[in-house]
Amino acid sequence: MQLPPVSVIASWPTPNYDNPTEVHGSAIIIMTAIFMPLMLAVIGIRIFTRIRILRSFGWDDIFIIAAALPTLGCGIITTTAAITLGWNRHIYDVPIWQLILGLRLTMLLECLFATGCTLTKLSLLFFTRKIMKGSGSPALQWTVVINIWIVAIELVIFILVVVFTCRPVSLYWKLSILPQNCINESAHLLASGAINTATDIIVIVLPIPSVLSLSLPVRQRIVLILLFGAGFGVCIAGGVRAYYTYRLNIAHDKTWEAYYLWISGTVELYVGVIGASVASLRPFLARYIPSIFGNQRERASYAFASTVARRYGFRRSNRGKPKPRKVKEVSEATTITMNCDFDFDLGYLRTQKSEMGPVTTASRDGAAEESNIGIPPAETGAGSAEQ
User: Fold this and answer.
1) Residue 156, C-beta contacts closer than 8 angstroms, at least 6 positions apart
2) Which of 93, 283, 307, 318 could form a disulfide with 89 if both were Cys (CB 3.0 to 4.6 A apart)?
């Protein structure tokens, strides 16, 4: 790290390492105390929903769990450093050894931040692929795949540039007044911030055409609008972080200006992970808080799905006992949750595939037919009666 000119250092007041006259408040600690438990709770509910309710745990869930790890790391590092390493002080009130250790942690923090952002975007992109199956245009699906590769390659390039900002690498945390063999870190951070915000916008906009093309009630459309609004909140946080990155790069008092950057970056990570998981909470909320998040059709859907699952398990473990009566008819208004977080209407009889067993539905002319959703035919209908 290249120190400010000697004239600037000479203008600084006498260091006060033990009791500095001015420090930042506890904003980082408060933000971490709020967002860290909230993020963990949201991810826990998401995993429960995907495994126990929808039974459709996928790559988007794996990536969001992976994204939570560097996010937790960033929160722990920034909070600990603000308390013990003087990240909430002016640079002249921070001992030299703390500055050196802080620079080492800064390199680690930048890599963790980029990893968390990338894994969150990959989770959203794989979620977009999931809801596009059978509905999105081929061009849009290829756009999603291309963006997956772009986001992944962007992470690799960013980490390589951060690690090799200086040659040798140790110059990054070596304090010197003389020029060092390092790239222009200011230009690098501003460029990466702009690219990161641009990819955020692309990732959020991509699923909109497919989701809006679904047949959804007004309430669900309002929920989706709120979800996308949360996604654009991440973009806003990214823009704020880019602004504080610019301020940091033109300032001589690095530790004082970096405090705002750590806050905005940490909030961006937490909001990104939470926003990417909110859509997956809807089945959980519709089941356990139906008066607020559900409606009659949704309650019938989840009750129907649970009934079919119980019947299948009952039949396998209780063959000697009376069998439940067969469900002969399902009204047209019933909806079935597929391998994503939205419901599709059964306007007329058509074959639907899911992870559940075959069900009998009524078409518009009253004829009963079967929809194959995964349980072997021998377990259904007359085949069950013969066992």
Assistant:
1) none
2) 93
